[in-house]
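User: I'm curious whether this sequence folds into something compact or stays loose and floppy. Could you predict its structure so I can see for myself?
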Amino acid sequence: MLNELFILTKIKEGDIKAFEEVFRRYYSSLCWYAAGITGEMEAAEEIVEELFYVFWKDREHLQIFQSVKSYLYTAVRNEALQYCQHKEVKERYREYVLAGNVLEQSSDPHRLLEYEELQRLIRHTLDKLPVRRLQIFQMHRMEGKKYAEIASSLSLSIKTVEAEMTKALRTLRNEIDNYILTK
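Assistant: Here's the prediction. I'll summarize afterward.
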């Protein structure tokens, strides 16, 4: 425990070697642990990489009251469970849409017209996005690719992909909010 306290103190002070030691010690086993929960090694690796990124980025503010190992495993478990819940919600919605329930629920021509109008608004908004932002949005939302996959295939950093997705979603949200306010 004293050794972990020493390593944690070094990490908080910005010692990259101490961080790398923790990373090497736990990365592989955390990935296998997360894969056991998610059933997907790729998702598990993304979860663990994001955890270590946040761990390093917020190192000065870390409040760890148990061992570093316990902290990391608990954080990975929570993120993996959240990933599974999100995946389940997305899958249920996907099945709902594929079953045609969105349009079947309403035989009201007015609602169908609003739905079609909203679809046009979304297409029009996406068409106005810069090429790279649109490409990233389509790869993530339409093709289901992870940020790491997109970053790798487009030779970008994961943070650039995240930033572009945030901007694309903000643009869509603003256009939809404006549409709703004018209705």
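Summary: The radius of gyration is 21 Å. The chain has two domains: 2-90, 106-182.
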